[in-house]
Prior knowledge:
The chain contains six helices and ten strands. The protein is of the alpha+beta class. A hairpin with a 4-residue loop joins strand 9 and strand 10. It is elongated and about 60 Å long.
Amino acid sequence: MPEGDTVWQAARRLHDALAGKTLTRSDLRVPRYATADLTGRTVLDVTPRGKHLLTRVEGGLTLHSHLRMDGSWRVYAGGQRWNGGPSHQIRAILGNADRTAVGYRLPVLELLRTADEDRAVGHLGPDLLGPDWDPDLALANLLKDPARPLGEALLDQRNLAGIGNVFKSELCFLLGVTPWLPVGELPADRAAKLPELARRLLEFNRERPIRSTTGRRGQDLFVYGRARRPCLRCRTPVRLADQGDGSRERPTYWCPHCQPGPTRSR
């Protein structure tokens, strides 16, 4: 599941493969950009912004993509077989003399002027892994709607950018509250440490092939994906329910003993 850490990793792979090199192949397989041709242009950089990827190209152009739930970018050497999915799932191909980057199942793909990047990412809050990170602003954003459930507030990229469903559940566990607790009822000491705790989790995982919030080998996550299995702290069975704002429900995990507060049953 792509979250801020995995998007950061994808950006680094793409940057290493493409940046500073001239494109010899360009194929954007979405109707709006079917005739767009980036060949002959040099890729300047690939930058992550929360869960978004910005591939900047010579001539003031940016290819903006978002992976959402199951999109991916794969990088292949010359002659290597592409194995990211069937060909009809390919949405973008960017290649140079040495490497080819292939975007599979990309739900968001748009070509825009670099000067207009704010159209795509200007709404985002402080990026947990970005140079604009501001913990005070992130916390202020979260507290703007004190009645909103904490889990929903954490997933709102306008508050802070990079948290997905896994880190949402894990953060709530580490804070000792349920994801349904109104964010304004989060004890002040825990609210104060929330932004930096979130940042530390993502920083710890941005270099790791297997995401971990526990630091324990073989027991990588405290609650996410552990429905009905014993809590790693108290052995109480972890519970599972859906959480969302009505437009989209997300599976949410918590320990009823370690995380007191309002809940919801699946």
